[in-house]
Amino acid sequence: MQYVNAFIVGGIICVIGQIIINKTKLTPAHVLVLFVTLGVVLGAIGLYEPIVKFGCAGATVPIPGFGYSLAKGAMKGVDEHGILGAFTGGISSTAGGITAAIVFGYLMAVLFTPKTKP
Protein backbone atom coordinates (compact mmCIF):
# COMPACT_ATOMS: atom_id res chain seq x y z
CA MET A 1 0.00 0.00 0.00
CA GLN A 2 2.98 2.34 0.53
CA TYR A 3 3.71 2.25 -3.20
CA VAL A 4 0.16 3.29 -4.00
CA ASN A 5 0.28 6.11 -1.44
CA ALA A 6 3.62 7.31 -2.82
CA PHE A 7 2.23 7.22 -6.36
CA ILE A 8 -0.86 9.18 -5.32
CA VAL A 9 1.03 11.89 -3.42
CA GLY A 10 3.77 12.26 -6.04
CA GLY A 11 1.17 12.30 -8.79
CA ILE A 12 -0.87 14.99 -7.07
CA ILE A 13 2.26 17.15 -6.67
CA CYS A 14 3.05 16.72 -10.37
CA VAL A 15 -0.55 17.46 -11.42
CA ILE A 16 -0.56 20.65 -9.33
CA GLY A 17 2.70 21.74 -10.99
CA GLN A 18 1.37 20.98 -14.47
CA ILE A 19 -1.87 22.87 -13.81
CA ILE A 20 0.12 25.88 -12.59
CA ILE A 21 2.27 25.81 -15.73
CA ASN A 22 -0.75 25.41 -18.05
CA LYS A 23 -3.05 27.97 -16.42
CA THR A 24 -0.56 30.73 -15.56
CA LYS A 25 2.32 32.45 -17.28
CA LEU A 26 4.81 31.03 -14.77
CA THR A 27 7.79 29.21 -16.22
CA PRO A 28 8.93 25.82 -14.92
CA ALA A 29 11.74 27.65 -13.07
CA HIS A 30 9.16 29.77 -11.26
CA VAL A 31 7.18 26.67 -10.33
CA LEU A 32 10.37 25.03 -9.06
CA VAL A 33 11.08 27.97 -6.74
CA LEU A 34 7.42 28.07 -5.70
CA PHE A 35 7.44 24.37 -4.79
CA VAL A 36 10.70 24.56 -2.83
CA THR A 37 9.39 27.58 -0.93
CA LEU A 38 6.06 25.86 -0.34
CA GLY A 39 7.90 22.80 1.00
CA VAL A 40 9.88 25.01 3.39
CA VAL A 41 6.80 26.87 4.62
CA LEU A 42 4.66 23.74 5.01
CA GLY A 43 7.55 21.95 6.72
CA ALA A 44 8.17 24.85 9.09
CA ILE A 45 4.56 25.05 10.23
CA GLY A 46 4.21 21.28 10.49
CA LEU A 47 1.74 20.65 7.66
CA TYR A 48 4.12 18.69 5.40
CA GLU A 49 4.92 16.04 8.04
CA PRO A 50 1.51 14.28 7.72
CA ILE A 51 1.91 14.26 3.94
CA VAL A 52 5.35 12.64 4.34
CA LYS A 53 3.96 10.03 6.75
CA PHE A 54 1.20 9.15 4.29
CA GLY A 55 3.08 9.42 0.99
CA CYS A 56 6.64 8.48 2.06
CA ALA A 57 8.88 8.80 -1.03
CA GLY A 58 6.01 10.32 -2.99
CA ALA A 59 6.30 13.36 -0.76
CA THR A 60 10.05 13.47 -0.07
CA VAL A 61 11.47 12.84 -3.56
CA PRO A 62 9.67 15.63 -5.49
CA ILE A 63 10.94 19.18 -5.16
CA PRO A 64 8.68 20.24 -2.23
CA GLY A 65 10.41 17.44 -0.31
CA PHE A 66 13.70 19.25 -0.79
CA GLY A 67 12.21 22.36 0.78
CA TYR A 68 10.80 20.25 3.59
CA SER A 69 14.27 18.77 4.22
CA LEU A 70 15.78 22.26 4.29
CA ALA A 71 13.23 23.45 6.86
CA LYS A 72 13.56 20.34 8.99
CA GLY A 73 17.37 20.58 8.93
CA ALA A 74 17.30 24.27 9.82
CA MET A 75 15.01 23.63 12.79
CA LYS A 76 17.23 20.78 13.96
CA GLY A 77 20.30 22.99 13.51
CA VAL A 78 18.76 25.72 15.65
CA ASP A 79 18.00 23.18 18.38
CA GLU A 80 21.60 21.92 18.35
CA HIS A 81 23.68 25.03 17.57
CA GLY A 82 21.49 28.04 18.25
CA ILE A 83 20.76 30.72 15.67
CA LEU A 84 23.82 29.80 13.58
CA GLY A 85 22.22 26.39 13.05
CA ALA A 86 19.45 28.08 11.04
CA PHE A 87 22.04 28.72 8.33
CA THR A 88 24.00 25.47 8.54
CA GLY A 89 21.29 22.93 9.42
CA GLY A 90 19.45 22.99 6.11
CA ILE A 91 22.62 22.59 4.09
CA SER A 92 23.82 19.76 6.32
CA SER A 93 20.54 17.88 6.02
CA THR A 94 20.43 18.10 2.22
CA ALA A 95 24.15 17.69 1.49
CA GLY A 96 23.84 14.00 0.60
CA GLY A 97 21.13 14.60 -2.00
CA ILE A 98 22.92 17.56 -3.51
CA THR A 99 26.18 15.63 -3.70
CA ALA A 100 24.46 12.66 -5.34
CA ALA A 101 22.85 14.94 -7.95
CA ILE A 102 26.20 16.51 -8.80
CA VAL A 103 28.09 13.20 -8.95
CA PHE A 104 25.47 11.37 -11.02
CA GLY A 105 25.01 14.37 -13.31
CA TYR A 106 28.75 14.48 -13.89
CA LEU A 107 28.93 10.73 -14.55
CA MET A 108 26.12 10.94 -17.09
CA ALA A 109 27.87 13.85 -18.82
CA VAL A 110 31.07 11.80 -19.02
CA LEU A 111 29.41 8.56 -20.16
CA PHE A 112 27.03 9.98 -22.75
CA THR A 113 27.89 12.48 -25.46
CA PRO A 114 25.19 15.11 -25.87
CA LYS A 115 24.17 15.91 -29.42
CA THR A 116 22.76 19.15 -30.66
CA LYS A 117 19.48 19.19 -32.53
CA PRO A 118 19.81 19.74 -36.30
Which SSEs are present, and which pair or pack?
Blueprint lengths: L1 H22 L4 H17 L3 H8 L1 H4 L2 H19 L3 H27 L7
Helix pairs in contact: 2-5, 5-6
Protein name: Stage V sporulation protein AE
Keywords: Membrane, Transmembrane, Transmembrane helix
Organism: Alkaliphilus flagellatus
Explain what you see:
The protein is mainly alpha-helical and 118 residues long. It has one domain. 82% of the residues lie in helices and 0% in strands. It has helices at 2-23, 28-44, 48-55, 57-60, 63-81, 85-111. The N and C termini lie far apart (46 Å). The mean pLDDT is 90.
Ranges where pLDDT stays below 50 over 5 or more residues in a row are: none
- Count of DSSP E strands? 0
Integer tally of domains: 1
Shape: globular
Q: What portion of the residues fall into strands of 2 or more residues?
A: under 5%
Average pLDDT figure: 90
- Percent range for helical residues? over 70%
N-to-C CA distance: 46 Å
Largest sheet, in brief, is: none
Number of helical elements: 6
Calculate Rg over CA atoms.
17 Å
Order of helices and strands: HHHHHH
Derived from helix and strand composition plus strand pairing, the structural class reads mainly alpha
Organism: Alkaliphilus flagellatus
Pfam family, one: SpoVAC_SpoVAEB
Transmembrane segments: 6-22, 29-45, 83-112
Keywords: Membrane, Transmembrane, Transmembrane helix
